[in-house]
Amino acid sequence: MIDGTEPSYLRDGLSLRSWLLSTDHKRIAILYALAITAFFFIGGAAATLIRIELATPAGDLVSDDAYNKLFTAHGVIMVWLFLIPSIPSVVGNFVLPLMIGARDLAFPRLNLLSWYLYVAGGLIILAALATGGVDTGWTFYTPYTTMFSNSSVVLTLVGIFVTGFSSILTGLNFIVTIHLLRVPGLGWFRLPLFVWSTYATSLILVLATPVLAITTVLLVAERLFQIGVFDPAHGGDPLLFQHLFWFYSHPAVYIMVLPAMGVVSEIIPCFASRSLFGYRFMAYAVLAIAGVGFLVWGHHMFVSGQSPLANLVFSLLSFIVAVPSAIKVFNWTATLYKGSIRFDAPMLYALGFVGLFTIGGLTGLFLASLALDVHLTDTYFVVAHFHYIMVGGAVMAFFGALHFWWPKVTGRLYPEGLARAAALIVFFGFNLTFFPQFLLGYQGMPRRYHAYPPEYTVLNVLSSAGASILAVGYLMPLAYFAWSLWRGARAADNPWQAAGLEWQTASPPPTHNFDAPPRAPEVPYDYPPRPAEQNA
Amino acid sequence: MSFVFGPARRTVPQPSVAALGMWVFIASEALFFGALLFAYGVTRWHSPAAFAAASAKTDFWIGTVNTAVLLTSSACVAMAGDRLRHGTSRAAELWLGGAVLLGSLFLALKAIEWRSEWTHGLFPGPSWTLDGHPRPAAELFFAWYFVSTGLHAVHLAIGIAFAAVLATRLSRASERFEHNERLHAFGLYWHFVDVVWIVLYPLIYLVAPRT
Q1: Nearest residue of B to residue A219, measured between CA atoms
Q2: Do A452 and A506 form a contact (C-beta atoms < 8 A)?
Q3: Domain annotation for chain A: domains and CATH numbers
Q4: Which secondary structure element, helix H or strand E, spans residue A15, and what is its range?
Q5: What is the pLDDT of residue B208?
Q6: pLDDT digits over A13-59, tens only?
Q7: Total beta-carbon pairs less than 8 A apart between chain A and chain B
C-alpha cells in the first residue's frame, strides 16, 4: 500500500497489534478516522431513511415509532460519535503535535485509552440501537425520557457517558500538550489558529462534558430508581434537566465548529498565499466564542416557561456571541483580498464553510430573537439552522482538512479533479437539502413528524433530492482516497507551499515526527508576498 | 534518523506535565460535582423544610468523625510529599500507608452509615416514608445523598488504589524527582476529593439546627 524508503510512522510495525496498541498520536488519529468514518455512514444511513420517508407526505415507509428511533439514532450518532470527535480527535491528534514541533501528545497512553473509551461508548450505543433503539430524540427531555419512553434509554446514556470520558481525556491531553510541549521559541502568538481553536475546544470539552456526565448519571438514576430530581411530584424539576443538558450541549456546538474554524484558518491563507488577516483578533475571537458560548444555553429554552428576564439575558448573550463569529468571517474574507487564490479542493471546502457558516450564524440570530423564536421553535427552520452550522460548517471543514492534510498523512496525492468535483457536489447537494428546510420551517412545518400536509410536498421533495446528491458527494472521497493509497502520486513534503511546522517534516512523517527540531517561525502564517507587491 | 528529540526535550521538565494534567482534570471534576450541587440547590430551594427534616435523619456523628478522618488523611498525603522532597522515601511510604488506612476507615464508616440508613428505610423506593408520612421531597434529599456520597466514595476508592500503587513504587524508584512529581499530582487529586467532602458535609448533615 504505502511504501517507500523513508522510515515513516506507517512502516513502523505492520501488525494489527502495532496499530491497536500504538501510542503514536499519528496512528491513533488513523484509528479515530476509521471508527469515525464507520459511524458517519451509520448515522448517514439513518438520515437517508428519514429523507426517503419525507419524500412523500404520507407516513408510508416507516411507522411513527420507527421514525422517532431513526432521527434519534441519527442525532445521537452524528453528534457524539462523529461531530464531536471528528476534527479534534482525527485532525487534531495528527497535526497538533506536528504544528507545535512536539514528539507526541503529553500523555500518549491516555490518548490510546481515549480511543478505546470512544469505541466502547460507540459500541454500547450501537448495542442500544440493536436492542430496540431509542425514541426520545438526542436531547432526552424529561419527563418523556424518565417516565414514558419504552426504549433503550439507559444503555444509550451509558454509551454517551463512556464517550464523554473520551472527550474529557482528549481535551485534557491537548491542553497540557499546548501549554508545555511547544518547541522552544514558539510563543502563544506564533501558534497557528488551528492550535488556538483546538485549545479553546479542549477547554469546553473539559469544562462542559462533566456536566453532561453527571446529567446522564441523574437521568439513569431517575429512570431506574425514580429518585425524583426531575419529577415535580418529588419536588424535582423537569426544567432542571434542560438547563443541565444545554449547559453542555450548547457549548458542544462550539466543540464542533471551533476546530472547523481552525481548519479554515489554516487553509485560506495557504491557498490565497496571504498572511491571515487580523491574527490576534482571530485568536481572541476563538477564546471569546468559547467563553461566551458557556452563557447562552438558555436560548434553547425560550418557550419552556423560563422567566422573561432570563429569556432577555440569554437572547442578548446569544447576540453577543455573534460578534466574535463575525470577526472571524470578516477576517477570512479580508485574507482573500488581493491574494493569489488557488481553487484546490481544500480551498473549495473552506470557502464553502465561510458561506454556509455565515448563513447558519445569521439564521441563529433569527432564533435568538425572542418573538421570532416563538414562531420558529421546533420547526424545520431550527433543523436547517443547525445543519448549516454542523454540516455546512463542521463537516465541510472536516472534509477540507482531510484533503489538506491527506498528503502529509499518507504521503500520497489524491486526484485533484475528482476532489474538486466532489467538493462542488457536496456544496450543491447540501444547499438543496437544507435551504428548502428554512422555507418549510418558516411556513410552520414542525420537526420530528414522519408525515406532513401535502402543501409541504414540493420543498420536501427538493430536500430529499438534495440529500441524494449530498450522499454522492460524501461517497466520492471514500472511493478516491482509497484509490490514492495504492495509486496516488507521491506527495512532496510540502505540496501546498504551506507555512505550518507540520510541513517541515517528511510526508508521511517518521514516528518521532522530526529528524531535526523544526524552526519556530518569526510570525505565524509567514506566506510569501503576493506577486503584485513584488512587481511593484 | 539523525537527531531524535524525545520527551526529554521539552520546554519544561516533564514532571509538571503530570501536575498540569491533574489540575485540568480537577477543573473537569469541579464541574462534575458542581452540577450535582446545582441540582441540590434547585431542589432544596423548592422544598427547604423537607430537606431540613431529612437532614435531621442523617448520622451527624459518623459524618463528623469521617470529616476529621479525611482531613487527617490529607495531612498524611502532605507529609508524604514533604518526606519525599527531603529524600526519605521510606517515611513517605509510611505516610502514604497512613492515608490508605484513613481513606479505608472513611469508606468503612460510610458503609456502616449506609447500612443503618438502609435498615431504617431511608433508601428511596416505593412507599417511602419519613416518620410514617410520605414526604417525596425528603425522599429526594436522600436520593441526592446516596448519589453524591456514592460518587464521592468511588472517587475516594480510586484515590486509595492510586495511593497504594504509589506507595509500593516510591522506594523502587531510581528517578526520585519523577516520583516526587507523581506524588504531587496524586496529592492534588486526594485533596480535591477531600474538598468535595468538605462541601458535601454541611449540605448533608448541617441543614437542620440540631439539639
Answers
A1: B147
A2: no
A3: 16-262+274-535 (1.20.210.10)
A4: none
A5: 78
A6: 889 999 999 999 999 999 999 999 999 999 999 999 999 999 999 99
A7: 130
* Residues A163 and A135: beta-carbon distance below 8 Å: no
The whole-angstrom distance between B1's CA and the closest CA on chain A is 6
Assign residue B144 the CATH number of its domain: 1.20.120.80
Residues of A with CB below 8 A from B153's CB?
none
Alpha carbon separation from A519 to A25, A53, A496, A532 (Å, rounded): 21, 56, 19, 28
Chain B CA closest to residue A241: B39
Contact A394, A40 (CB under 8 A): no
Residue B39, CA distances (Å) to A216, B66, B147 in order = 13, 24, 12
**What is the least distance, in Å, from the CA of B94 to any CA of chain A?**
29
Distances (CA, A) of A26 to A22, A31, A501: 9, 9, 15
Residue B61 inside a domain? The answer is yes
In this prediction, residues A475-496 reach a mean pLDDT of 95
Chain A residues with beta carbon closer than 8 angstroms to that of B7: 103-104
How many Cβ atoms from other residues are within 10 Å of residue A276's Cβ?
Answer: 24
**Which chain A residue has the Cα nearest residue B51?**
A235
Confidence of residue A536 (pLDDT cuts 50, 70, 90): very low
**C-alpha cell of A6?**
523513508
Total tally of structural domains belonging to chain B: 1
- Expressed as residue numbers, the domain containing B97 is 15-205
Q: How far apart are CA A507 and CA A10, in angstroms?
A: 10
Chain A: nearest CA to B101, how far in angstroms?
29
Q: Give whole-number Cα distances, A99 to A307, A505, B130, B140, in Å.
A: 47, 10, 61, 51
B210: in domain? no
The tens digit of pLDDT for each residue in A179-211 reads 999 999 999 999 999 999 999 999 999 999 999
Q: How far apart are the CA of B31 and the nearest CA of chain A, in angstroms? A: 6
Question: Which residue of A lies nearest to B27 if distances are taken between CA atoms?
Answer: A207
> Does B110 map to a domain?
yes
Q: Is B86 on the interface with A (CB under 8 A)?
A: no
Residue A69's Cβ-count burial label (10 Å; 0-12, 13-18, 19+) is buried
**Contact with chain A for residue B12, Cβ under 8 A:** yes
In chain A, what's the furthest Cα-to-Cα distance?
A: 78
Distance from CA of A143 to the nearest CA of B (A): 16
Q: How many other CB atoms are there within 10 angstroms of residue B120's CB atom?
A: 10
User: Is there a contact between B5 and A210 if contact means CB atoms under 8 Å apart?
Assistant: no
CB crowding B164-203: b at 16 or more within 10 Å, else e: bebbeebeeeeeeeebbbbbbbbbbbbbbbbebbeebeeb
Q: What is the 3-state secondary structure (H, E, C) of A329-352?
A: HHHHHHHHCCCCCCCCHHHHHHHH
Q: Of B72, B28, B22, whose CA–CA distance to B188 is shortest? A: B22
Quote the cell numbers at residue A256.
464542533
Residue (of A280, A192, A258, A286) closest to A525 by Cα position? A192
A-chain residues near B36 (CB < 8 A) = 214, 218
pTM of the model: 0.94
Q: Residue holding cell 469515525?
A: A36
Hey, how many other C-beta atoms are within 10 angstroms of the C-beta on B109? Answer: 17
A227 with B144: Cβ contact below 8 A: yes
Q: Is A153 helix (H, G, I), strand (E, B) or coil?
A: helix
Domain membership of residue B84 (yes or no) is yes
Q: How confident is the model at residue A253 (pLDDT cuts 50, 70, 90)?
A: very high
| DSSP conformational letter for A412 | B
Which among B20, B25, B31 has CB closest to A180?
B20
Contacts of B50 in chain A (CB under 8 A): 235
- Each residue's pLDDT tens digit, B97-149: 999 999 999 999 999 999 999 999 999 888 888 888 889 999 999 999 999 99
What is the chain B residue with the closest CA to A506?
B1
